[in-house]
Write a structure and sequence with these properties.
single chain; three-stranded antiparallel beta sheet; mainly alpha; Multidrug-efflux Transporter Regulator, Chain: A, Domain 2; globular
Length: about 110
């Protein structure tokens, strides 16, 4: 990830759009076109992008804008490149969801 980006766990859609140099509508469109772009959402429904999400968005932009790939070409590229990474990511996602659920459960118990 670019060294100029602030070091945080999550970024809001406006921040990501600004950092990457695209409009928020482009990010929303890419979410509909690329199944691998699924940011988490806050309780209020705000998109929360992880560092990995931002890195994938950077790569999508590079492939589309610099390498002149089509939408379908980007899908195929990520499909080929991402199969091995997908199971690792899914394991991480499951672990994070379990931790989140545990924390929410603790929070409810404290009230």
């Amino acid at each position: 990830m670019n060294a100029d980006f602030p070091d945080r766990m999550y970024y809001k859609i406006g921040e990501v759009a600004h950092m990457i140099g695209v409009k928020t509508s482009v990010l929303r469109f890419w979410e509909t076109e690329f199944s691998f772009l699924k940011p988490q959402k806050s309780i209020k429904g705000q998109r929360l992008y992880s560092k990995k999400d931002v890195e994938m968005i950077q790569e999508v932009k590079r492939l589309l804008y610099m390498e002149k790939y089509t939408i379908e070409g980007v899908r195929k590229c990520f499909s080929r490149c991402g199969k091995a990474k997908r199971s690792e990511q899914q394991d991480s996602d499951i672990l994070l969801k379990n931790i989140k659920n545990d924390l929410l459960s603790l929070r409810r118990q404290m009230k």
